[in-house]
């Protein structure tokens, strides 16, 4: 029960209400036990339309501002979330996001209730868009940003590498299987290795890894004998580097030294 986002949110005192919002399915029954344990609201909503689910929950709780996070973001920065909420309220925005080069899991998707109503109206008038975007209303707002008043919270913290390594070690301890499912980043690297190993004509398989993130996939390729050219596209200023940008894993002890090209 220790590693969850609910307890730090409760301690922060930022929100009037915290709710676990789930689809109205029998499999969601187990989550209600967690809501009871944490003494937070439990709300069942539309099975597939996340926009309607969030809107109905907000209406039920009389909320104007909704900050959406996932339960396992236990390392969330509540001070950052507060800045997002204050920005939305003070500037009368519909949605506040974080910069593209910052990990959303340290913050939240902060949205005004009217935004969900507008999105739902758009979905009702255009079934094709609804089918494509109903599961991710925040992505819809970012795609059709000209139709909404959006703010980007640039006041993001800078985390040092000591915190980065400590957090990564904790994540690996709490969730060691996080990279081993078909919907995770490492799966595509496993597919690449399978393909390269079937190419018997390739005595020394080579690969080009673009935007490698934290480097787990590149490390895996190197362990499997694939020669990697590591191409990093740095889209952030040197002054605003944060934990999301990571550090080349080839600098770690025991990892094969890989060629790295960095573009600023």
Any overview of this molecule?
The chain has 10 helices and 9 strands. It is an alpha/beta fold. Helices cover 40% and strands 15% of the residues. The chain is globular, with a radius of gyration of 21 Å. Mean pLDDT is 80; it is low at 232-264. The chain has 2 domains: 6-152, Spore Coat Polysaccharide Biosynthesis Protein SpsA, Chain A (Alpha-Beta Complex), CATH 3.90.550.10; 161-263, no CATH class. A 4-stranded mixed beta sheet has the order 3-5-4-6, sandwiched between helices. Strands 7-8-9 form a 3-stranded parallel beta sheet, covered by helices on one side. It has a two-stranded parallel sheet with strand order 1-2.
Give a brief outline of the structure.
Helix content is 40%, strand content 15%. The protein has 264 residues and is an alpha/beta fold.
List keywords for this structure.
Spore Coat Polysaccharide Biosynthesis Protein SpsA, Chain A; alpha/beta; disordered C terminus; 2 domains; three-stranded parallel sheet; four-stranded mixed sheet; 264 residues; single chain
Outline the fold blueprint.
Elements: H1 6-12, E1 19-23, H2 29-38, E2 41-45, H3 50-61, E3 65-68, H4 78-90, E4 95-97, E5 109-112, H5 113-125, H6 127-133, H7 137-143, E6 150-152, H8 161-174, H9 185-198, E7 206-210, H10 216-223, E8 227-233, E9 260-263
Parallel strand pairs: 1-2, 4-6, 7-8, 8-9
Antiparallel strand pairs: 3-5, 4-5
